[in-house]
Amino acid sequence: MINKNISAVDLFCGIGGLSYGFKKAGIKVKAGIDFDDSCKYAFEANCNATFIHQDISKVEAEDIKKFYDKDDIKVLVGCAPCQPFSTYTLKGDKQKDQRWQLLYEFARLIKETQPEIVSMENVPNLLNFKKEHVFENFVKELEKNGYFVWHKIVYSPDYGIPQKRKRLVLLASKKGEIKLIEPTHSIEEYLTVKDAIGHLEKIDSGETSQINWLYSDEFKKHTTSDSANNTNKLNGRIDYVKNKILEN
């Protein structure tokens, strides 16, 4: 059973994919931070946590520390934008995209907040980034601050994900050795997209469902509005989705 005092803050949270995984694992996600404010609705509705619209380079340690309680095991996670390290970007103009520097901002916030657990993931090409030894420097900074660091390129189907994708995963801990669990699926057990979503009702584009509330007329009524920028309307939609998620 997960320790109830484990709390996480998610940097570069986006719409909350990583945070939702933490939530499903029983870890309390306190907040997510992202520069894209269009992520607020999905993040708060799915993760039941506070969304902070902020540039990571402007975030201070106290902005994060305030979300942790005194006795919490503090977890700080971050999936910095992967575009600077992607195969597509590396083929183009490397000078234009400076977001690779955000990994240093992540390291700064780790140093300033000193969480017990750190996790990050990115594309494997981060290991081969030629402009600067970003990942190597990131690991050195963690080790200098007393963390045990583990990292590996992980193949998603090995863990029951129906997607042929490799990701660089890093885990770090001040509490001793840490690493990802061993693969849960053999090649013969790999899941397909059909395995994952084949049971869903088939509807055409624009149709509504009589079975799945996420595609119902009622959901469209709460999530489609000309007043998308109206705070009250937005909060009403978030509350509707939260209640539906709790019901299901």
**Gross geometry:** globular
Q: How many structural domains can be distinguished in the coordinates? A: 2
| CATH topology assignment of the largest domain | Rossmann fold
* Helical segment count: 9
- Mean pLDDT across all residues, rounded? 84
Helix and strand content put the structural class at alpha/beta
Number of strands: 7
Helix fraction bin:
25-40%
CATH hierarchy: architecture of the largest domain: 3-Layer(aba) Sandwich
Roughly what fraction of the amino acids lie in strands?
15-25%
Output the helix-strand order.
EHEHEHEHHEHEEHHH
- Supply the CATH class of the largest domain: Alpha Beta
CATH homologous superfamily heading of the largest domain: Vaccinia Virus protein VP39
Work out the oligomeric state of the chains in this entry.
Answer: single chain
Report, as a whole number of angstroms, the end-to-end distance: 22 Å
Question: Which strand order spans the largest sheet, edge to edge or round the barrel?
Answer: 3-2-1-4-5-7-6
> What kind of sheet is the major sheet?
7 strands, mixed
- Roughly how many Å is the radius of gyration? 20 Å
